[in-house]
Design a protein that fits this description.
heterodimer; A: alpha/beta; Rossmann fold; six-stranded mixed sheet; four-stranded antiparallel sheet; B: 432 residues; alpha/beta; 2 domains; globular
Amino acid sequence: MLKVRNLDAGYGKLRVLKNISLHVDSGEIVTMIGANGAGKTTLLHTIIGLVRASAGSIEFQDQCCNKMAAQKIVAAGCALVPEGRQVFASMTVEENLILGGYVLERKEGRGAVLREMQCQYDLFPVLRERSEQLAGTLSGGEQQMLAMGRALMSRPRLVMMDEPSTGLAPLIVKDIFAVITRLRDAGNTVLLIEQNAKAALGIADRGYVLEVGKVILQGPADDLLANSDVQRAYLGREKIA
Amino acid sequence: MYWEPERECMAREDLEQLQLERLQSTLYRVGTHVPFYRKKFEELKFNYDAVRSLDDIRQLPFTEKEDLRSNYPYGLFAVPLRDVVRVHSSSGTTGLATVVGYSRNDIKTWSNLVGRVLTAAGVTRNDVIQIAFGYGLFTGGFGLHYGAEHIGASVIPISAGNTKRQIQIMQDFKTTALVCTPSYALVIADTMMEMGVNPNGLSLRFGLFGGEPWSEAMRQEVHEKLGILATDNYGLSEVMGPGVAGECQECNGLHINEDHFLLEVVDPITLEPVAPGEVGELVITTLTKEAFPMIRYRTRDLTRFLLEPCPCGRTMKRMERVIGRSDDMLIIKGVNVFPIQIEKVLFEIKGTEPHYQIIVERENHTDKVSVLVEVSENIFFDEMKKQRQMVDHIKARLAAELGIGVDVKLVEEKTIERSMGKSKRVIDKRKL
């Protein structure tokens, strides 16, 4: 579904991503874990077209999208749930969702958007309860669900999530991750960027470990959980000899 | 039958993506974790970011058996010993032993890859598998053992030796699959004959053979004597052990587990890649090993890639059975000649015996090769003309196979010295 090869990207002279290769197959959750500043967000922004790649290729659904405009990439079926939710605080929950459906509206009309909104309400019942409320008045967990719902409104083939667990209470994180698993089980494909390595690897099929702009490890999520480098660096588990 | 169809039958372009990802992270890991590679990479001023395709691996130097020896015992490990759950070692009969290590994930991968090889050969959880490879430091026994358990077969870890007991157990335990070296399979078959055991009365159906080079003729012999489907599998302890490649039931070459190993075939002299499908030395890079990664290991095994797709549906590239060792190669008039090529031609010609000797001389600065071939007795008493024709026929076939002209002499049966161990096929009289 998504194939990234030898990707270089950065800001001005600063090279953030160095020769990154990864792929996401249909129907799987792939997680990219790494510390602050490793380049995780830059990676997502490069895939979605907010940052331009200086080298390498990005193929989405067998279509090269290095030079595509962000809205075209979204229209092609790739959606981003940004870090820190970025909901439109002064708009209602419903308005936020309708905005997320702009691609769908162009393709299939308003009716499809309204039907899709009901799907999101089924997936996140709390959003239905709060539909008339201003997004800015929601709790952090609710805002995260709104951000996810908004992204799903475009009926994406690939959902990319940037640190959905940031700033949330552990119980809420559990809920969010349960929703991600449900999404996968319903046939969606997810690329999940996380600092919370344990939770992310716990639900993912495969994972990549990003360190200062390079993929240093990759493999099945179970293998990464069992890998001692990952344990020492990301899971805080240091066995005493 | 596949063990992991989503991998074994994956699209080539997806496979290449996966290989590239794994190669890039493997190189980064060895370059940061293994002092031997770090030093090599620094000397080369090798930049990880420069690896942008699988072919870029050719920028890197080879790793030789000697490198393993000079880093004896743990110098090439990429993880601390506390993360190593298993250590194997080569015998060390030809010098200092070499040591290899496995992490928990490595053992898991290994079992899985051997599971693929076993499944491709026809073995399932319903089989009773007798493992007559040596256990211990040698990787053969344990490698097959873990793989067979992994797919749920019933494992008899009998190890090598005590042939009569092997046969007794084969009868009593109703063994359906035999794992050993091909030559030991023939020993078992001959011992059965001596004991008066009829192989057709056994439950044996499959034989998985590896650990030493063998030939199509031997496969036929094993098949006839034991009535089993005999498949070849390949591996070496420096890289992992069995599980690198294995034949499917088409018996037409070994499917390489390419998602875990990157294989190259190079000319043993120039060390440049050979043309697609040409014979050369196999060079292996591991793509997923944690404890003991290998970069461009020179196996000294001679083989070639088989380029046609296999009817079994696997997309993993195949290699021909190992046809010899690059150490045995002769250079004659600048052409690389392998004794096995001569053997192959002789094998196809009626009336010759599988005993031959190659004599290389240098006269007036020119290399001259004569091949002494034993022929069955009856031919010798025939007319001279027929003999002449036969010599010409062999010469023509050899010239076509080798690309150089050689002299052929027919000799009577049993005139070439027999050896108990490895036979002396080549006599090189050149003083090079």
